[in-house]
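Good morning N.,

You mentioned wanting to compare the apo and holo forms, so I went ahead and generated the holo version with zinc ion. This is what I fed in:
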Amino acid sequence: MFFLILDKDASKMLFKNTWDSFLDLLFPRVCLGCTCHLNFYEKMVCLSCQTELPLTHFNKTHKNTLYNKLKLNFPLENAIALFYFEKEGKVAQMIHQFKYLGQPHIGIYLGHWLGDTILASPYLKKIDGIIPVPLHPSKMRKRGYNQAAIIASALSEKLNIPVMEKTLIRIKKPNLWLKLAMKNVGGR
Ligand SMILES: [Zn+2]
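and this is what came out, ligand included:
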């Protein structure tokens, strides 16, 4: 004879896992990278694709490649990117679905992943706010959401750091024409 003793949290977890498995049977979820069926413990990308994604590991280096490129244009403390971008491949596929096929939940997943990466970094400890680059209103109308704002909000949730959405204002359509709303950064 044996007894299985579950505390409140463990029984909740068991119920959640059973419920997730049941939902997976009814509505099978597929991997964003290879479209295979996901197991209940996999979120959006299967374990096999996760190992193949071109992660940068920039969180482990202080002066990484991205930092060295960006510092030529403006002063900065550090820089991070989750993946190397490739024109084709799993990352491009995910970004395309997120940006153009109306799947904002992909941004939340990526934002949480980036948040975990930042939390694991010894170099990215002093972040005061998260500023998403705004979309031009015409693009916003077309797309329905700003992908940077979605990632920012997921990051904010993970890192417990505020999103400062009104700090940057887009004044023209081309990407580089951005204006800082100075009243939000000290009124100078
Ligand atoms: Zn996969």
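Residues 31, 33-34, 36, 45-46, 48-49 surround zinc ion (CB under 6 Å).

Happy to go through it together on a call whenever suits you.

Best,
F.
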